[in-house]
Amino acid sequence: MPENKIYEYAVIRLVPKVEREEFFNIGLIMFSKREKYIRFEFHLCTEKFQSMKSKLEFDSISQNLANFKHVASGEKEGGPIALLEIPERFRWLTAVRSSVIQTSRPHPGKTKDLDGTFDRLFEELVK
């Protein structure tokens, strides 16, 4: 029987007007130190984005999210932070920040199937 794997995840949020603290979920990041696992996915819904009546540009936010993905995946396009080990990349991506792209606090969990759990959480929390 497969062993439970410990993981952490955080929800990625778009906060169009930081001063109002309104947001909607646009992505998920999950990592497991022991399994050397990190995964980041996002879904930026055009309709939700437009309903926020913000001066933000959709393409600019999409590019920032793509940069987050480069960092999470350890790709050179992510710059020096992407070269760090997986736990440091996760901590950097989930650090508290006052910007239009924020994350929830990390939440812990256990699972036998990291990808299956990621898919379930992404469906429940983002889509």
Helices and strands in order, then pairings?
Blueprint (H helix, E strand, L loop, with lengths): L4 E10 L9 E9 L4 E6 L3 H6 L6 H16 L12 H8 L7 E3 L3 E5 L2 H12 L2
Antiparallel strand pairs: 1-2, 1-4, 1-5, 2-3
Description:
By secondary structure, the chain is an alpha+beta fold. Helix content is 33%, strand content 26%. Strands 1, 2, 3, 4 and 5 form a 5-stranded antiparallel β-sheet that branches. β2 (24-32) and β3 (37-42) form a beta hairpin. It is globular. The N and C termini lie far apart (31 Å). The mean pLDDT is 92.
Quick structural summary:
This protein has 127 residues and is of the alpha+beta class. The protein has helices spanning 46-51, 58-73, 86-93, 114-125, and strands spanning 5-14, 24-32, 37-42, 101-103, 107-111.
Question: What distinguishing features does this structure have?
Answer:
33% helix, 127 residues
Pattern of helices and strands:
EEEHHHEEH
Measured distance between first and last alpha carbons: 31 Å
Low-confidence stretches: none
How much beta, percentage-wise?
25-35%
Q: Pairing-aware structural class of the strands and helices? A: alpha+beta
Mean pLDDT: 92
The helicity comes to: 25-40%
The radius of gyration over CA amounts to 15 Å
Coarse morphology: globular
